[in-house]
Amino acid sequence: MAREAVEGEDLRIGVAGFGLRGPVAVEAHRPGRGSRVVAVCDTGEAGREAARRALGPVRLTGDFADLLEPGIDAVMILTPDHTHAGLAVRALEAGKATFVEKPLAVTLEDCDRVLRTAYERRARLYVGHNMRHMPVVRVMRRLVAEGAIGEVKAVWCRHFVGDGGDYYFKDWHADRRNTGGLLLQKGAHDIDVIHWLAGSRTARVTGMGGLTVYGEITDRAPGLPQDWYDPARNWPPLAQKGLNPVVDVEDLSMMHMLLENGVYASYQQCHYTPDYWRNYTVIGTEGRLENFGDLGAGAVVRVWNAGRRAYDPEGDLTVPVVAGEGGHGGADEELVDEFVRFARAGGATDTSPVAARDSVAAALGATESLRGGSVPLDVPPLAGDLAEYFANGQF
């Protein structure tokens, strides 16, 4: 077991990967305020240089082993998805409190290997499902818990990924060897939220979808092209240029879920819409709720629960969504706060390694179904000894 962080001292953090989720490492760098990044490992010079500019005088390395030395209390893994499991296992075996960016892994076997390692080594494992801290999700969760719509019976999510052509089809995300598929890479967040709102995991799943637009684009480039993100120029979707040489993930996909507690759910994802946001509808025995907007100003959650009527766009209750400062409406700050506290003391957290594994399992099942004729598939649960251990808080 690695050295426990001393109360009153900053938690000393080593970061693996300084790319698109680099801002989480920046959020964790709070010298004198509880945590500080002391080392960053990135295999590319560009990543190390970005870390130097963002964090100042921290140790920079290309060797992950440097993050496992005694002078580091916790490790944050912010690398591409297919590397998560191997790095997490190494960090946990070294006894480090370990933060793994979602998804936990890209195979169910790797998810369970990471969980098993944390259990056997008694090393604290935390998964970065920051949407559990997003204000819009917190509002919906609170309304459900307060009984505003009665007992939940259905959860629907429509995900309009308007910038998907830029974010997910110009680098490693577009290659299913690295992601499994975008139901996993992008959808794991929303599947986790669906499970959280419904209070259960997916037991059976069916998927459908395909590569419907971006497969037609023949302009390809190794690595991100210059000026790769330009919302004005990169429209309409077929005008995109410089896609990844390998594009074999779906740009339109959907899944139906039967949860273990009997709730029915659905998730739809499209990567070429003109707008970028997600819309949830939660239906219960005494009403329904729905969000309008998620991260931007003016977002609200509306509730219909005062009786039957025809079309009513306003509903019976409107709850404003008050976003915080920083990434994802303040969710990244809350996520880091929770991780730092957990790395020191263990205990219950709003995120859950088991729930992270369950979102991967559902997404993998849906992707397999989608690519295999939309046959319904059962989603295997986690082994009982692991489920019990993580439910008790990893003290």
UniProtKB/TrEMBL annotation:
InterPro entries registered for this protein in UniProt: Gfo/Idh/MocA-like_OxRdtase_N, Gfo/Idh/MocA_oxidoreduct, GFO_IDH_MocA-like_dom, NAD(P)-bd_dom_sf
Gene3D superfamilies found in the cross-reference section: Dihydrodipicolinate Reductase, domain 2, NAD(P)-binding Rossmann-like Domain
Molecular function terms from GO: nucleotide binding
Domain Gfo/Idh/MocA-like oxidoreductase N-terminal: 11-129
Pfam families: GFO_IDH_MocA, GFO_IDH_MocA_C3
Record domain GFO/IDH/MocA-like oxidoreductase: where: 138-290
Coiled coil feature spans: none
Protein name: Putative dehydrogenase
Organism: Sphaerisporangium krabiense
